[in-house]
């Protein structure tokens, strides 16, 4: 589009100490949106043209799953309360870690570990931890909620979504079988992602929301309960200027990461300010894309509007 802002390529970005590709201040020194800035009104309006049938597909795993979350996070609990004295009224209470299941990782989640800084070079010591109460909505300390998930919640994560169905890509090339176990550590090389996009007929646009189906959900449903519970014990870059990236995997990146390269979360969240989506349920979407032969769509996600929040269930769907 003619009004698109020119953005630096990865190689044009400066270094931060031993990290290359630092995008701090690309959107200004006070920016709290990161790559969500790419989802302008014009970009969203253009993306709405992807709506062809009106059929909606939910991308959220039920909040109860997985029963044993990864990385030592608490399992979700759901309590239904019957108010017997009122005759016919129920309430319910949810208690979750916002990163136990389908999720967006926010800008406060992961920084540059050995340097102790988050997006925009913000020191880890800057953020208040523990229980945070904000009693007065007319008197909110902006420093208290800086880089919170509410920034994306109030903006919305809406635009053109693209699905790279790596399960189909690899299975088609290997007699219907995946050449790896999605519950084990496996790298997906960038050339394979590009080859998959070409096979699906996708030409990336600035501001696309990239979804990658690598097979975890399919494997999870096909595994035993013991295999499902084992995930609790487990601890590429493209110059396309994506607005966000998500997959059906527990950590998006290869986990555990190779010692030589470190955590990709550091670059995506800490240097670029890009949302990372994990545990997205892409099974129904993959089926629809296969049936229609279309791997682009209108994507809509509205995270929880938690002032100063670290992460959130995505509340995502496509049309």
A few lines on this structure:
With 319 residues, the chain is α+β, with helices and mostly antiparallel strands. It has helices spanning 41-47, 150-155, 166-173, 190-200, 216-222, 225-229, 264-271, 283-292; strands at residues 57-58, 77-82, 90-95, 103-105, 117-118, 122-123, 157-165, 209-213, 244-247, 276-278, 296-301, 311-312, 316-318.
What does this structure look like?
By secondary structure, the protein is an alpha+beta fold. 19% of the residues lie in helices and 17% in strands. It contains eight helices and 13 strands. The strands form three sheets. It has a nine-stranded mixed beta sheet, with helices on both faces. Strands 2-3 form a two-stranded antiparallel ribbon. The chain has a two-stranded antiparallel ribbon with strand order 5-6. The protein is globular and about 60 Å long.
- Helix coverage percent of residues? 10-25%
Q: State the low-pLDDT regions, or none.
A: 231-238
Strand content: 15-25%
Question: What order do the SSEs take from the amino end to the carboxyl end, as H and E?
Answer: HEEEEEEHEHHEHHEHEHEEE
> Whole-Å distance between the termini?
22 Å
The quaternary structure here is single chain
Count of separate DSSP helical elements: 8
Helix and strand composition category: alpha+beta
Gyration radius, to the nearest Å? 20 Å
User: What is the number of beta strands?
Assistant: 13
Spatial arrangement of strands, main beta sheet: 1-13-11-7-8-9-10-4-12
Q: How many strands, what sense, and barrel or not for the largest sheet? A: 9 strands, mixed
Give the overall average pLDDT. 90
Query: Based on CA inertia axes, which overall geometry fits?
Result: globular
């Amino acid at each position: 589009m003619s009004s698109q802002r020119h953005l630096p390529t990865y190689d044009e970005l400066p270094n931060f100490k031993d990290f290359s590709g630092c995008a701090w201040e690309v959107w200004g020194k006070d920016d709290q949106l990161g790559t969500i800035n790419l989802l302008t009104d014009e970009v969203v309006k253009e993306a709405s043209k992807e709506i062809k049938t009106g059929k909606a597909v939910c991308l959220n795993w039920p909040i109860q799953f997985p029963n044993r979350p990864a990385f030592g996070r608490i399992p979700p609990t759901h309590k239904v309360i019957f108010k017997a004295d009122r005759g016919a009224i129920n309430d319910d209470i949810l208690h979750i870690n916002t990163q136990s299941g389908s999720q967006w990782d926010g800008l406060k989640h992961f920084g540059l570990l050995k340097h102790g800084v988050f997006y925009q070079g913000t020191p880890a010591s800057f953020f208040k931890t523990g229980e945070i109460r904000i009693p007065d909505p007319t008197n909110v300390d902006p420093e208290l909620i800086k880089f919170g998930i509410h920034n994306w919640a109030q903006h919305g994560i809406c635009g053109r979504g693209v699905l790279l169905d790596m399960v189909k890509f690899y299975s088609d090339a290997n007699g219907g079988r995946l050449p790896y176990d999605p519950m084990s550590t496996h790298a997906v090389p960038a050339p394979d992602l590009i080859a998959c996009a070409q096979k699906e007929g996708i030409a990336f646009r600035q501001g696309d929301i990239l979804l990658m189906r690598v097979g975890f959900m399919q494997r999870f449903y096909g595994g035993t309960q013991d295999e499902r519970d084992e995930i609790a014990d487990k601890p590429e870059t493209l110059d396309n200027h994506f607005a966000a990236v998500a997959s059906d995997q527990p950590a998006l990146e290869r986990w555990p990461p190779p010692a030589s390269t470190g955590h990709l979360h550091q670059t995506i969240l800490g240097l670029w300010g890009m949302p990372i989506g994990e545990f997205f349920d892409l099974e129904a979407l993959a089926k629809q894309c296969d049936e229609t032969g279309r791997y682009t769509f209108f994507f809509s996600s509205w995270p929880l509007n938690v002032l100063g929040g670290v992460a959130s269930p995505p509340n995502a769907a496509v049309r």
